[in-house]
Amino acid sequence: xxxxxxxxxxxxxxxxxxxxxxxxxxxxxxxxxxxxxxxxxxxxxxxxxxxxxxxxxxxxxxxxxxxxxxxxxxxxxxxxxxxxxxxxxxxxxxxxxxxxxxxxxxxxxxxxxxxxxxxxxxxxxxxxxxxxxxxxxxxxxxxxxxxxxxxxxxxxxxxxxxxxxxxxxxxxxxxxxxxxxxxxxxxxxxxxxxxxxxxxxxxxxxxxxxxxxxxxxxxxxxxxxxxxxxxxxxxxxxxxxxxxxxxxxxxxxxxxxxxxxxxxxxxxxxxxxxxxxxxxxxxxxxxxxxxxxxxxxxxxxxxxxxxxxxxxxxxxxxxxxxxxxxxxxxx
Length: 331
Fold this sequence. Notes:
Blueprint: E1 6-9, H1 15-22, E2 26-29, H2 39-45, E3 51-54, H3 62-68, E4 74-77, H4 87-93, E5 96-98, H5 106-120, E6 122-123, H6 130-135, E7 150-151, E8 158-162, H7 166-177, E9 182-186, E10 200-201, H8 204-210, E11 213-216, H9 235-239, E12 246-249, H10 258-267, E13 272-277, E14 295-299, H11 308-326
Parallel strand pairs: 1-2, 1-3, 3-4, 4-5, 8-9, 8-11, 9-10, 11-12, 12-13, 13-14
Antiparallel strand pairs: 6-7
């Protein structure tokens, strides 16, 4: 009788996810608690396992993958992308990389709407707290804004969505309730479910030139870590947008050129931007975006620490079981 596959988890996850994994495999939990796991412990823990479930702050490089051995067939991460995983080594060894199923996560939609509202809200007086937010994005959801004077105007705006998957559709549904009058989208082909929200399929150029609010819902990096769309939202794209355009980064992917975005915001090519950031993700700050008053941040990592973390982890656990089964592991 063949043994059940073994998965090594680098950090504590909700018990519901562990219970889901136990239905098909044995679970090995990291001994350390807290935000940091010593590399030596990871190298020791992965030996002989069939799968690894890591956090976005864990570096799963060639050494870790080799230490796991020939039985490793799946590397999963509690993240939207796999920047911290050596995807080239995984590809070479035939190891499947699994990321969180963002398209089915309503928590991500909630955070996107929050980020959008943060970007469109106009305060009558200068907000002295903004530098606090920009210096530490975690402060965004805890800042005390009671008593301020706000005005939110969403009616008669055109929403543009780049890549209309389930995530984009959910965002479109929410924004229709806020008064969005027209919805445009661009994808590799027309999406049948777009009819549910009355979204119009348009060219990429039309999406840029006619959207008042533009949400980027592109796929994160592919399993090989590359994409043909890399950097397509650059200075040329920003020049085609309205000067009043609000750009919202929904999912982390390499399609957005942060350096060109900084220039576009500083020179007034677009009105403002809302970025999906994480504490360990320093990319937006490399080009001084945090110094701009028209660039807003929301730490999507917080969704893994709120109620949505359980939902995400269980969905990921099911993805892992499916991947293990597809790779010939008896469950």
